[in-house]
Amino acid sequence: MNLTISPLNNQYRQNFTAVKPSAAMDVVEQNLTKPQGSSLFAPFKKAYDGMTDKIAKHFTSKIAEWGVLHKLGDKFKDSSNLFKYCLTTGAVITSGMYMQQTYTNKKLEKDRRNTLVVNQGLTLAISTAGSFLLDKYITGWWDNVTARFAGHLLDDKDFYKDYLSKKQAIIEKNKTLAKDAKEKMPNIDKLIRANSKFKNLPDADSKALMSKFKGMALLRSMIVFGFVYRFFVPVAVTKPTNAICEKYLENKKAKEAQKSA
Amino acid sequence: MKVISIHSDIIHQAEAPDLLSQKNRGKGVCIENRGLKAGYSGSFTGKSEAATSFMDKILKSKWFGKFAKYSNEHNISTSALVALVLAGIMRPATIMSLPGKKDKDDKTYAAGHSMASGIIGFIFSTALTSPFDESIKKVFAEDGEFAGPKLKKISDEIAKYKALEEKGELTAESLKKLKTLVKKQEAMKTFLKNVPDWIIAVPRAMLTIALIPPILKYVFGLEKKKSQEQQPQQQKNIQIRNDIIDKPVFAAFKGGAQ
Question: Are residues A170 and A61 part of one domain?
Answer without folding.
Answer: no
